[in-house]
Design brief:
This protein starts with a helix and ends with a helix. Helices cover 44% and strands 10% of the residues. The strands form 4 sheets. Strands 2-3-1-4-12-5 form a 6-stranded mixed beta sheet. Strands 7-10-6-11 form a 4-stranded mixed beta sheet, sandwiched between helices. A two-stranded antiparallel ribbon has the order 8-9. A hairpin with a 5-residue loop joins strand 13 and strand 14 (400-401). Helix 12 packs parallel to helix 22, helix 22 (497-518) packs antiparallel against helix 23 and helix 22 crosses helix 24. It is built from 24 helices and 14 strands. The chain has helices spanning 2-30, 65-74, 87-97, 110-115, 123-129, 131-137, 141-144, 178-183, 192-205, 224-227, 229-233, 258-272, 285-294, 308-321, 364-374, 377-384, 404-410, 413-419, 421-424, 449-455, 458-466, 497-518, 524-535, 540-558; strands at 46-52, 59-60, 76-82, 103-105, 154-155, 172-177, 212-215, 243-244, 251-252, 297-303, 328-331, 354-357, 393-394, 400-401. The chain is α+β, with helices and mostly antiparallel strands and 561 residues long.
Length: 561
C-alpha cells in the first residue's frame, strides 16, 4: 500500500511539474516580441522568389540585417529580383509562360496580372493565418476586393493609428539647385515663368560650366513624370493624367488642354535655347539619376521617391564637403500667381498597388505567415527605425529620435542596402505612410518631428531661415480634402474600352511629345494641332465618364453611403 501511495504521489508531482513547465513556456513565448507563431514548432528554412517591378539591387533578404532577423523569426528568406528594362515586357513574359515568382510587387502592370489570374485569392489565408493582416487591412476591405469579392494583393498604403503629415517633400515638385537660389538672393518664386527665368539667368552667368537647364524623365514605365507636370502647374494633385473638378467632381483628361500645350511649348523654347537635355527622350533611368547626381542639371520636375537615390548621394557628398550647392530644393511651382498649389498628398488609400502571392507559389500559407509577422508594431519599428541604440534612440518620454551620427549613417545608400531599410521600408505589407504607433511615435522615421529637425544640416537651416519656414513642406499649400484621391488608383479592366483608351493615349504621347519638344519653335503649333486631331479620334469621353462615375462611388463610400 505504501509503495502504491508513493507512486501515486510521484505521478501527481510529475503532472504538476509538466503543467507548470507548459505554463512557463507559454508565458515566455508571450513575452517574446515579434515572434512569428508563438508556441509553434519551428519550421524548416525556406527561400521564396520575389519580383519587384522597380529598379534596385538584387539580393537575398537574409543578406540584410533586417531580413536576417525576419528569417530567424520565421525561417523564411526571399531571393529578391528587381526590374531591368520595361515592366510590361517583363510581366508579359511571366503571363505568356504562366510561370511566376512566388511574390510579385507590380507597378502599373498590376491590372494585367490580376486579369491574367496571376495572383491567388488571399481571403481564406488571411482568416486562417493572418490576424495582423486583418487588423491592418480590414478597415479597407471594401476598397481592396475585386468584383468577385476576392482580395488578390495587399496594398502598401493602409494607415494605422493617427495620420501624421510629412515635414519634408516626399511627392512631386519642381526642383532647383540650391546654388541657383543662393546666387539670386533666395527669391520667393511661385510661377513657372519665374522658375525658368532663374534657370536662364544662372546659365547665362555661367556659360563655361556646361550646365543643363532642364531635364525630364521619360522612360517607358515613368513617362508620367513628363505628362503629370501640367496637372501640378495648374494647381492639382497627382490624380494621374486626369483632373477632377472640386465642385462638380467631373473628370477631365487634360492631355489636349492648354495646360499641356503650355508646358510642352516652354520645354520647346528651352530646347531651342540649348537649355533642355535632348537625351531626356532616350536616357534610361540609371542615366537620368546619374545626370542628377553629376551636379550639372539645374532644374527638373519629378517625385521625390523616384529620385531618392540621387538625392541621397548628393546629400552624402554635401555632408563631406560642407557645401550644398549641388543639392536641390523643392518648389511648389504653378502657372499663375493666384493659383493655390496642391503638390502635397491628402490622406489616401491606393488600392491598385500592392504585393501579391502568385499561382506558382508552392507554399502560400508560409508566405502569408511571413507577411503576418511583418505587421507587428515591433517589426514595423524594425523595418522603419531599425535597432534601438544602434540606428535610433529613445528619450525619457519614450519618444523615438536619431542622433546626428545615426542620421548620417541611415541616410547612406550603402548602409540602407546592407541594413535592409531600402528593401523593407516599402514594397511589403506595411503600415502606410503617415501611420503612428500606439505610443504616438511615427512609424516612418522621416515623419518624426525630432528626426526631421535633427536631420537638417546647417545649409538646410540657412534655406529654412531664408524662406521663413520651419520645415520644407511648409513652403507648400495644405492639401484640400479629396475623398476619391488618388483617381489613378481606380482599377481599369484589361481589354476594356477605358484600358484601350489609356494605351492608345500613351502611345500617342510617346510619339508626339518628343517631336513637340525637339521641333523648331516655328513648327510647334502645326505638330500640336496634328496631335490634338489624333487625340480627338480616341474615346476620351467614355474614359472621362468612367472615372467620373468611379469618383462618385469613392465619395459615397467615404461618406458611408
Amino acid at each position: 500500500m505504501n509503495k502504491k501511495f508513493w507512486l501515486s504521489c510521484l505521478t501527481v508531482v510529475m503532472m504538476v511539474s509538466l503543467l507548470a513547465a507548459c505554463g512557463g513556456s507559454k508565458e515566455a513565448a508571450d513575452n517574446t516580441p515579434a515572434a512569428g507563431g508563438e508556441g509553434e514548432k519551428k519550421e524548416e528554412k525556406v527561400t521564396f522568389t520575389y519580383f519587384n517591378a522597380a529598379a534596385g539591387k538584387d539580393k537575398n533578404t537574409n543578406e540584410t540585417t533586417i531580413g536576417k532577423i525576419f528569417e530567424d523569426q520565421t525561417g523564411v528568406n526571399f531571393k529578391m529580383e528587381h526590374l531591368v528594362g520595361d515592366e510590361n515586357t517583363k510581366v508579359g513574359t511571366f503571363i505568356a509562360s504562366n510561370d511566376y515568382p512566388d511574390v510579385i510587387v507590380p507597378g502599373s502592370s498590376i491590372d494585367k496580372l490580376v486579369g491574367a489570374g496571376a495572383f491567388i485569392p488571399l481571403n481564406d489565408l488571411i482568416d486562417k493565418y493572418g490576424p495582423n493582416i486583418k487588423r491592418v487591412y480590414e478597415p479597407y476591405y471594401n476598397l481592396m476586393k475585386a468584383e468577385d469579392g476576392n482580395i488578390y494583393f495587399l496594398p502598401l498604403s493602409a494607415v494605422v493609428g493617427e495620420y501624421t503629415s510629412a515635414p519634408n517633400i516626399e511627392q512631386g515638385a519642381f526642383w532647383i539647385q540650391r546654388r541657383v537660389l543662393k546666387e539670386a538672393g533666395y527669391p520667393k518664386i511661385k510661377t513657372f515663368d519665374e522658375y525658368l527665368a532663374l534657370i536662364r539667368d544662372y546659365v547665362k552667368k555661367h556659360p563655361e560650366e556646361g550646365l543643363t537647364g532642364y531635364l525630364a524623365l521619360t522612360t517607358q514605365d515613368k513617362f508620367f513624370a513628363l505628362t503629370n507636370a501640367p496637372m501640378h502647374l495648374a494647381g492639382y494633385p497627382n490624380d494621374g493624367g486626369i483632373i477632377i473638378d472640386m465642385e462638380t467632381h467631373v473628370a477631365n483628361d487634360y492631355a489636349d488642354d492648354d495646360i499641356t500645350k503650355r508646358y510642352l511649348q516652354e520645354l520647346n523654347k528651352l530646347n531651342a535655347e540649348g537649355l533642355f537635355d535632348k537625351s531626356s527622350f532616350v536616357d534610361n533611368y540609371d542615366q537620368y539619376l546619374a545626370k542628377l547626381t553629376s551636379g550639372k542639371v539645374l532644374g527638373f520636375f519629378d517625385y521625390r521617391w523616384q529620385v531618392g537615390q540621387a538625392m541621397n548621394n548628393l546629400r552624402e557628398t554635401a555632408n563631406k564637403s560642407g557645401n550644398d550647392d549641388l543639392e536641390y530644393m523643392a518648389l511648389p511651382i504653378v502657372y499663375d500667381e493666384n493659383t493655390k498649389d496642391q503638390y502635397l498628398d491628402p490622406p489616401s488609400f491606393v488600392n491598385n498597388r500592392g504585393v501579391g502571392i502568385s499561382v506558382s507559389a508552392k507554399d502560400p500559407e508560409r508566405i502569408v505567415k511571413y507577411f503576418n509577422n511583418l505587421l507587428t508594431d515591433e517589426n514595423q519599428i524594425l523595418s522603419n527605425w531599425g535597432i534601438k541604440d544602434e540606428t535610433y534612440s529613445v528619450d525619457e518620454k519614450g519618444r523615438f529620435y536619431r542622433t546626428e551620427e545615426q542620421i548620417a549613417q541611415t541616410n547612406t545608400e550603402a548602409f540602407r542596402e546592407s541594413f535592409g531599410f531600402k528593401y523593407f521600408e516599402y514594397n511589403w505589407p506595411r503600415y502606410g505612410n503617415g501611420s503612428t504607433l500606439p505610443d504616438g511615435n511615427s512609424v516612418g522615421a522621416g515623419r518624426q518631428p525630432e528626426v526631421a529637425k535633427m536631420s537638417y544640416s546647417e545649409p538646410d537651416k540657412t534655406l529654412l531661415e531664408a524662406y521663413d519656414i520651419d520645415s520644407f513642406s511648409q513652403l507648400f499649400a495644405a492639401p484640400d480634402d479629396r475623398p476619391w484621391y488618388p483617381a489613378w488608383s481606380i482599377p481599369i479592366d484589361q481589354g476594356s474600352p477605358a484600358q484601350i483608351f489609356t494605351q492608345k493615349k500613351s502611345d500617342l504621347q510617346r510619339k508626339y511629345f518628343p517631336k513637340l519638344v525637339l521641333a523648331s519653335p516655328a513648327e510647334f503649333d502645326g505638330i500640336w494641332n496634328e496631335y490634338v486631331g489624333e487625340f480627338g479620334k480616341l474615346d476620351v469621353k467614355g474614359y472621362e465618364d468612367l472615372i467620373t462615375e468611379e469618383v462618385a462611388k469613392k465619395i459615397a463610400n467615404a461618406q458611408g453611403q
